[in-house]
Amino acid sequence: MKRNILLVEPNYSNKYPPIGLMKIATYHRMLGDDVRFYKGNMQDFIIDLLYEDCVEKLMNIDSEVPWRTHKSAIKRFIKLKKNQLIFLEELGLQNNDYKELILRCLIDFADYYRKKKYIESPRFDRIYVTTLFTFYWKITIETINFCKYLVKDINELKIGGVLASLLPTELENEVRIKPITGLLDKPGELDPEMSKAKKIIIDNLPLDYSILDEIEYEYPTKSAYFTFMTKGCTRKCAFCSVPKLEPEYKPKIETIDKFQEVKKRFGDQQNLLLMDNNVLASPKFHEIIDEIKDMGFHKGATYVEPNQLEIAVKNLESGFNDKGLTRRAFRLMNELISRLKGDVAQNYYDILADKDLLNLDTVTKEKILEVYPHIKDTYEKYRNKTPRLRYVDFNQGTDCRYVTEDLMKKMSEIPIRPLRIAFDYLGLREKYTEAVRLAAKYGIKELSNYILYNFNDKPEELYERLKINVELGKEFGVAIFSFPMKFIPLFGDEAKHRQHTGKFWNKKFVRAVQSILNVSKGIVAPYHPNKKATFFYEAFGKDLDEFFEILHMPETYIIYRHLCRHKLDYTKVWEEEYRSLSVKDLRVAQEIIRSNDFSNENILKKKPSKKVKHFMRHYRMISRNSIEENDKEYKKIKKLYDDMIKNDQFIDLTLTYDFEATEDRKLNYDSQLPLIKYARI
User: What is the value of pTM for the model shown?
Assistant: First the structure.
């Protein structure tokens, strides 16, 4: 029997699409089930479901009204139940012969939503909720709890992913559902009694890219194959979750067949993004590189985008994910308009307009299939066929301890960009330096690394590693983009938020580093021979003394450096006063600053002198939120990095969001929903 399956990713910000859910989508399509993917506000999802049912009933009442053109108004009425007469006037239906029936239908759906009757009639046979970082705990729990009301049988609510694997006991205690931990790498795990499913290993399945077109959220990774060449890691680093998530090291994963299936179904992708956690540890590394080259990713390889509209239409004709591919076809058809001119543009526009294909609300699969024969020649002639370079990205980084000249020479045969080499602690300096030297020797000029801090390191060690990258860039003529990444515990209550401070760190120092990185989205730009100074020395200080002074500086002065130093003179005054403090006063002031608590109560508790109390005004008189972003230097730096990120996809792929002081996206979870009973599984 065909099942109704819902795949859910909580509404947090993330770079990569949910690979696990993409495999599960493939699995359920193989079994003939209906699959739907959602990421967003869960209350809005309910409105979407009710809107679809409502339009169907309204069509039965009066099929002459173009109901889908009124999508926003109908959804708003269901959500807010606005004034009925005003609503009819807004839709031009005040004189409609069926207006009483129309109003009755709309009111019924609005009452259904307001009274939460959807709880009484869950429509999904199974729901999967993926989880990511443990510090997304709150929004993840809210999402899971909401999904309980949408699934027919609570035992069919499946939870998996990173958080579920790292905090399974805590998660089960919180939501009373036993999560799936680790990988789905054994046959028949989800449906052991179903004959079709008994031999399917979900982790080996190709990804269903079409589900990504079902949602409004756009992942920044764009056109890329996502896959693994290896699984797991040979190391057991205390700060890393891989030993828990992928405990067995697999030196070679069969990839070619999955690659070919994705290419056949969704068309060729420009880049190859590999999620391996320690590819250099594989004794089959040479085979891996040769396979990557066989996939079309050899040095200098170029890519011409295939006719994506043709691919989408073929998938629509076969009935493969009508919702996602209808949206994709609509986007592709309308994106071409900007490339057309003159009569060609007008004719193309008129064809789409005639079938109401200029607005997503009025688009249907049938309209797309009807109009495609009339536009396909124009689309093929004018679509973008410009060749673009292809790149390979071992996105999780490579281990410098495994680097040899032979392996680096082999790696240089593929268009790797950037080469990521982990620099997790200062003790790796010699190995790391040698890896960078070998990369430069074999023509790999763009490098990137994640620099772990707030673990067992000291602040000065973060500075030293960043400085090493600047010096290596200058010495070897390479560009090294550094990405400081704040350590967050993997287990326990501290894993559920981002407030942890390492034993050699304090709240103020952590906030200071995040403030320094604020405008550059976490990037510490590389050495550049044509610039007088580098971002590193300007932002982190010319030496360790200046670095520690910056760490103690008010957060606002760090972020709005130009405004506070050159226009308001606050920074200069702060520096003069800070440097003039006596040894005793400095010790007291630093103790207050490092606590990052500038309340009167905390300041007075330290028994400061009058001079220290006066000095503390810098941390209280002007807040970050009180300054508009009118600092030209701030805007200039921010624009530089925004442009860098926009123009170079693979710099975008390196973004880390740890520095952002943003809250989890609001779910608008209704705490008044009644508790439901469930069985432990």
Answer: 0.90
The answer to whether the bond into 387 is cis (omega within 30° of 0) is no
SS3 readout for 600-619: HHHHHHCCCCHHHHHHHHHH
The partner residues of 398 in beta bridges, in order of sequence, read 421
CA-wise closest residue to 45 among 20, 78, 83, 84 = 78
Contacts 24+ apart (CB under 8 A), 677-680: 678/148, 678/154, 678/176, 678/177, 679/154, 679/155, 680/176, 680/177, 680/178
Encode pLDDT of 329-370 as tens digits. Answer: 999 999 999 999 999 999 999 999 999 999 999 999 999 999
- Token couple for 89: 């006037």
Q: Single out the residue of 356, 313, 331, 371 nearest to residue 212, CA to CA.
A: 331
| Residue 178 tokens, joined | 């036993």
> In this predicted model, what pLDDT tens digit does every residue of 105-132 receive, in sequence order?
999 999 999 999 999 999 999 999 999 9
Q: How far apart are the first and last CA of the chain?
A: 23
> CA geometry: angle at 29 spanning 23 and 31, to 5°?
110
Sheet harboring 224-227: ordered strands across? 224-227, 271-274, 392-394
Three-class SS of 36-61: EEEECCHHHHHHHHHHHHHHHHHHHH
Classify 420 as helix, strand or coil: strand
Q: Model confidence at 634, in pLDDT bands (50, 70, 90)?
A: low
Q: What is the DSSP letter of 192?
A: T
Cα distance between residue 610 and residue 603, in whole Å: 11
Q: Which two tokens stand for residue 340?
A: 């057309």
Shortest CA distance to 210 belongs to which of 267, 162, 143? 267
**Cα distances (Å, whole numbers) of residue 94 to 58, 60, 149, 218, 484:** 15, 18, 37, 39, 61
Tokens of 672: 């008044």
Task: Kindly indicate the confidence band of residue 569, based on its pLDDT and cuts at 50, 70 and 90.
Answer: confident
Which two three-digit tokens encode residue 40?
């967003």
Per-residue H/E/C for 467-509: HHHHHHHHHHCCEEEEEEEECCCCCCHHHHCCCCCCCCCCHHH
Among 278-282, 313-317, 381-385, 530-534, whose mean pLDDT is lowest? Answer: 530-534
Structure tokens belonging to residue 509:
């120092």
The half-sphere exposure of 292 on its side-chain side, counting CA atoms within 13 A, is 34
With beta carbons less than 8 A apart as the criterion, state whether 626 and 562 touch.
Answer: no
CA distance 536 to 482: 10
